[in-house]
Design a protein that fits this description.
- The chain is an alpha+beta fold.
- Helices cover 41% and strands 18% of the residues.
- The chain is built from three helices and five strands; from the N terminus they run ααβαββββ.
- The protein has helices at residues 12-57, 68-78, 102-107, and strands spanning 79-85, 112-114, 124-126, 128-136, 139-144.
- The strands form two sheets. Strands 1-4-5 form a three-stranded antiparallel beta sheet. Strands 2-3 form a two-stranded antiparallel ribbon.
- Helix 1 (12-57) crosses helix 2 (68-78).
């Protein structure tokens, strides 16, 4: 306690400078983690898409929660991913089906277009769609088509 009865403490300037320094250090840590984890997040998104396609195709080889290696193995041997122009039916090899986002593409001026008049209030649709062909012995035996929407309700 100071001689005048007030508790002894730090000045307002010191307190503000300390809080600012802590905030700056924390923001550097957060920004660094975002930058360094971005490739890992992208790879996990690819694996998640593969896992969903393999599960939708029903070819997860008896495992209810297959490992990443098993998913990649099954996907590379039994699934042929392609991107198709939805108006012409032509395939486009320059677009990666595992990273292509049809929802985002629909809103993009180059990858989407205005939808024709419809009762479902869909305003824009993508130009391209991802298609996953299920292949056995060089023969297509099934197709997985990603869909999105609000569901039944």
């Amino acid at each position: 306690m100071a001689g005048d009865g007030r508790p002894r403490g730090f000045s307002v300037v010191y307190t503000m400078a300390f809080a600012l320094a802590v905030a700056a250090i924390c923001s550097v840590f957060v920004a660094s983690s975002v930058i360094f984890l971005r490739p890992l997040q992208a790879e996990n998104q690819r694996l998640d898409r593969m896992r969903n396609v393999v599960a939708a195709a029903g070819i997860h080889e008896g495992s209810t929660s297959p490992s990443n290696a098993m998913v990649q193995s099954v996907f590379s041997t039994k699934i042929r991913p392609i991107v198709v122009d939805l108006q012409t039916g032509e395939t486009h090899d320059e677009i990666d089906p595992l990273t292509y986002d049809q929802r985002r593409a629909a809103t993009d001026s180059e990858l989407g277009r205005a939808a024709p008049e419809n009762d479902s209030r869909i305003r824009r649709i993508p130009r391209y769609g991802a298609v996953f062909l299920i292949v056995e012995e060089a023969r297509t035996v099934g197709v997985v088509l990603p869909v999105h929407g609000t569901g039944l309700w």
